[in-house]
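Each letter names a residue; structure tokens follow underneath. Both lines appear below:
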Amino acid sequence: MDLSRRYAETRDAQDPIGHFRTRFHIPDERLVYLDGNSLGRLPLTTRDRLRDAIEQEWGGELIRGWDRWIDLAGQVGDVIAEGVLGVGRGEVILSDSSTVNLFKLASAALDARPDRSVIVTDDDNFPTDRYVLEGLAKARGLRLRTVETDIDAGIDPARIAESLDDDVALVCLSHVAYRSGALADMVAITTAAHRVGALTLWDLCHSAGSVPVPLRESGADLAVGCTYKYLNAGPGAPAFLYVRAGLQTELRQPIWGWFGQRDQFAMGAGYDPVESIERFQVGTPPVLGVYAVLEGARITAEAGLPRLYAKSAELSQYAIRLGEGLDLASPADPARRGSHVTFHHPQAWQICQALKAQGVIPDFRTPQRLRLGLAPLYTRFVDVWDGMARLRDIIATGSYREFAAEPGRVT
């Protein structure tokens, strides 16, 4: 691979999805944004859609807008289902946050396996997932079985399989590790879980919109995911949840809200959930946020996951080659990685701040990891080249020592 900047310029000129960058609000072309795995850029269509929703729909139609808004969460769920996750219509819906959705689906799964007493996760799962599972285990008198995972190499399917027995009700893991980007073998792990009669719940927050997600191929039961990373729906945008079609009527989630109720405007005395994915809704959906998800998901679906994944693999491999000599804290094999690359350095926090001062936006994760998110819809090869050049220079000159060593609250 040619490591010159000219090569990066040539690859950008040849990029079959490079034109999607023009569909985003990018006021400063000099800024190298390598944090799309935390917060995606703003699509231009989202800006326009929200303006219309505020001025024309809310402002003009007022309460009459609910004639179109009432089914919006399911309609957007179908766009994500077919265009992002490769599953069927009626298997995905927008609702709440990823954390709340994880609680809802984990609770429903545990209720569906009342004679079992164990939840399995790994010790590098995203903290909110582990906290939710820990809380459920404590509240229900269950055991949380935590499998040790290499934080750089990711989940070993064999170790997960070894942790499984007839007491396991639920296996809950992340498809792409938040710290290293390591990609879990969803097919192998789901197969092992089903072999002992357990249900599976996957966190897709770092997967959706960046890598193919084999929910259908694996027979996975449940999944949750956020929309503000690679789906570019904006800070705090509503999350999605997936429930395999054949499992929907078997599960009853714990938060009984009126948007999951059959004939909700009858205002009935008892809770009677609908038999579709809508039973996993709770309260009134945030319409403006749902519209933002719609526009971000549409762009992703239009670009297509095969092309997005191919580009993200090439971008991340390019970053690794440009960072030769640095301590890679992600799998070296692109087939085992999501769309971000992580490097370890004892002064990673200071390096992160030094990069920001030079117009490069990465992020920091403990322990002493510098994480580079390479969102394929708008990240260019020259962005990777420029970012890595500045990173190498900062380390070589030691200029990062000018910055405080103590991390701030937001990393």
